[in-house]
Write a structure and sequence with these properties.
The chain is mostly beta strands and 108 residues long. The protein has one domain (6-95). Helix content is 6%, strand content 48%. The protein contains one helix and eight strands. The strands form two sheets. Strands 4-3-2-1-8-5 form a six-stranded mixed sheet, with no helix packed on it. A hairpin with a 4-residue loop joins strand 6 and strand 7. The radius of gyration is 14 Å and the shape is globular.
Length: 108
């Protein structure tokens, strides 16, 4: 089971997170890139880091590895994949997700 740094988790609740996720096929080629931002609702080993999307409020589960979320530099971040602008997010993180199967469509 994943151990959550409770001190950092408490610090992150209510903060704005910006995450970029690159989806890769079995040959490690990027096939899609997604961007998410929102306010941290909760963090636990089962769901991960859960945000309320800044676009529509929908809950989005992000990876729970809190050491991979760093304080964001102040400024304006343009999220091209969702045509949004985020100003001064609290945390930022990028992820590469690899296909677990040889099926490059993303189906398991």
């Amino acid at each position: 089971m994943i151990e959550i740094d409770q001190s950092k988790a408490e610090e992150m609740i209510g903060k704005v997170v910006l995450a970029g996720v690159s989806l890769c096929d079995s040959s490690e080629n990027v096939v899609d890139h997604r961007q998410y931002f929102g306010t941290v609702l909760r963090i636990n080993a089962h769901e991960g880091l859960v945000i309320a999307s800044g676009v529509d409020g929908e809950e989005i589960d992000l990876p729970p590895y809190l050491d991979q979320y760093s304080h964001a530099d102040p400024g304006v971040y343009r999220l091209k994949s969702i045509d949004q602008v985020v100003t001064n997010p609290d945390y930022i993180s990028t992820w590469r997700v690899y296909s677990a199967a040889s099926d490059d469509t993303g189906a398991a």
